[in-house]
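Example record for the data management plan.
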Amino acid sequence: MRAHLTAVCPSAEVDTFQHLPSSVVAFARELSARDLLTAHSHRRGQLLYAVEGVMQVRTPQGVWLVPPHRALWVPPQVEHEILMLSKVSMRTLYINQAQGRELGEQCRLLEVSVLLRELILALLAEPRDYAPQSRAGHVAELILSELARAPAIPVAIPWPGDRRLQAICEAILADPGRQFSLADWAGMGGASVRTVIRLFPKETGLQFRHWVQQVHLSEALVRLSRGDPVGVVAQALGYRSQSAFSNMFRKALRTTPNHYLQRQERRRLSLPAS
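Corresponding structural encoding:
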């Protein structure tokens, strides 16, 4: 899968404003499907957000799928790479370390409100080196206020260090709906079932089935965000019934897939063209 990617260097322009006094700096970039922003880190924390397209973000600790209406907080100095799973219109924020502490020291998937989206777009229209009492300064303060109340979404795919488990995890990420037994998956990694059962909690903090569930939730959020019907999502992820998928989704995220889908549709209808 990763052999057919186009490696893209992080923008050199980003380095020029890492040391600005501005509390929040916005940056826009257009990327194509299968582009891979190679591993890098920043002095500032980064809010990875796209108004269009889906990103897969990897750090040494985990993997996140980031659809529209969601953003990933990446703390300062955390090495990460970004794979574009479709055409992506990136509209990301760089937040200085003082304000970024409020967002935490771990990567987190956050919900992006309609207001936060519009504030990000507004800051893009402003100079990057701005005075605190300028219009841009006020927009930046509103962004920080909105981020402080942004709900975190408890979906993350912790990544193992063991190469046998990595091979299994890569295969599941590539085809999350494949119906393999644990013995089949273990064989793909050249490990025994007993080894997989023992190592998964040690390496990822999750039992194997709970790790797979996080992959399913991540994929479901992407599919629902583009408007796929719940039954289609359940089938694509290998669930025997829509109700079985809905029960898993509701227990994990405290909402049903149908309610989530309806909320996405209301958001879509309320958003102006960007």
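Summary line stored alongside the record: The CA atoms of residues 75 and 106 lie 6 Å apart.
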